[in-house]
Amino acid sequence: MSLFRNWTRRGLLAAFALSATLATAGVAAAEKIKVAAIFTLPVEQQWISRIHKALNEAQARGDIEYVYSENVANTDYERVMREYAEGGQQLIVGEIFGLERAARKVAADYPDTAFLMGSSYGPSGDNLSVFDNWIHEPSYLTGMVAGSSTKSNVIGMVGGYAIPEVNRLMNAFMEGARSVNPDVKFLVNFIDSWYDPPKAKEASFAMMDAGADVMYAERFGVSDAAVERGVKAIGNVIDTSADYPNTILASAIWHMEPTIDRAIKAVAEGRWEAADYGQYSFMKYGGGSVIIDENLVPADVVQQVKAKEQEILDGLFRVNINDDKPVSDN
Q1: What is the spatial distance between Cα 186 and Cα 274, in angstroms, rounded to a whole number?
Q2: Is the entire prediction scored with pTM above 0.90?
Q3: Which of 80, 198, 272, 322 could form an S-S bond across to 114 if both were Cys, CB 3.0 to 4.6 Å?
Q4: Is the separation of the CB atoms in 113 and 127 below 8 Å?
């Protein structure tokens, strides 16, 4: 007896359609890209948090299966990279500042694995792509806010390390401030740490004692000092205004989603190659934006900044890229 003897034509068609749908769903599930991230600091750290956020969003959409390691020491980084590659991860994301040679050797040893790494240098081989937080454009705009807001004409700037990724943001900020206030002076200090809030706080207090009434918070700890002394601050990479009410005038925000989403798509489509993904942090790709607290910043300043932002988006104004170490004014 035929298994389908008592089935109607409509029922058979429905059954086959359901079967095809289930099969397609199974293929889609199987085609999730396996992604691993390796971070040298906690995922709460501002720079790393933006990458982690973008990867979590991709996982929530069902595009990837995501695992990560945080607080990985430079001495362990190569080992962790190899373990993830050996484990079948298709895309490995991380940051290789300070261990460029070792990381590039690992990538060369696993040509079938895609690597997307934060780096001061270019792509290498066929499979190691690079990125960076190129948010010099919104940094320039926040500089305009700071230059318009200072009463003492002294702005303090506390950075982590004087590397190109930090220098270019600070220089853009300084240029933006000078564009609206040529009399402004800068105090610049690097604490030689990516995470040392007490040290950043002490450096900030010293600048405030020297007359700074607006602080550029490249590191955690600066805004805490600003709150204690009642001065204003400019945020970097993430929006911390809710944590420091009535303090953060504006922030240059990094959005890693355009970079991550393009990388995942390239792997999924089998067209991964070594490339520089840095451009996807530019404002025109949605990789950077500026947030202004309009309760703290006068309306005319807000309009001036928004007009300059539109010029950037329209390609009518280009923010200079200056990777040189910024220094205090004499």
Answers
A1: 39
A2: no
A3: 272
A4: yes
